[in-house]
Amino acid sequence: xxxxxxFPQAQRDAVYRAIHERRDVRAQxxxxxxPPEVLVRLLEAAHHAPSVGFxxxxxxxxxxxxxxxxxxxxxFERENARAAGNHDGERGQLYRRLKLEGILExxxxxxxxxxxxxxxxHVLGRSSIVDMDLFSTCLAVQNLWLAARAEGxxxxxxxxxxxxxxxxxxxxPERVYPLAYLCLGYVSEFLEQPELARQGWRQRLPLAExxxxxxxxxxxxxxxxxxxxxxxxxx
Length: 235
Description:
Layout: H1 9-21, H2 36-47, E1 58-63, H3 66-84, H4 89-97, E2 108-115, H5 132-150, E3 153-157, H6 163-170, E4 176-186, H7 195-198, H8 223-230
Helix pairs in contact: 1-5, 2-5, 3-6
């Protein structure tokens, strides 16, 4: 079976390779700068993400100032110490060994924000689910992440931050939310496994356990699909 709109096989393979080899990079950053033309391609990929009502709520704050990054890193250090208190015993020891950011090691930080007022009071498609602007901005993050992997550039999302303090450091207007604080740069390697899987924190769940049919917990009616899912192994 073939469809006229499908990409050629080599191009399809490249798309799936980017998806499966994308990693949350924390410790492998090199100091080499990202060339402007490459950075523009990444931002262009992010800017072509789908958005509800075509509101395009994202902005991109490029942060190469060491002073700014040190202020952000200080927020991380405090929040990470607080988060470590959630884990006791061996789990706590493992948590404290994990490298969870590359704020100072990466040559560039990028904050992707969500302007929650963009598009006006009534955005097409947002009347029932008001957080669709946040979801749309997440798609911009994913677009940039996959494009970065194709370019050989690592990306690490720093989620252990106080968003209110981060907004103050970056001087964001009240309506603008700092959705994703990212570390970008070329890397010495892309790990074969996600870092948390390699360190034994969590493993990828089997896809077959997460697919339901016509309602939560219901079996699939397509036996061939069920069999195909059962044959899959986590990448």
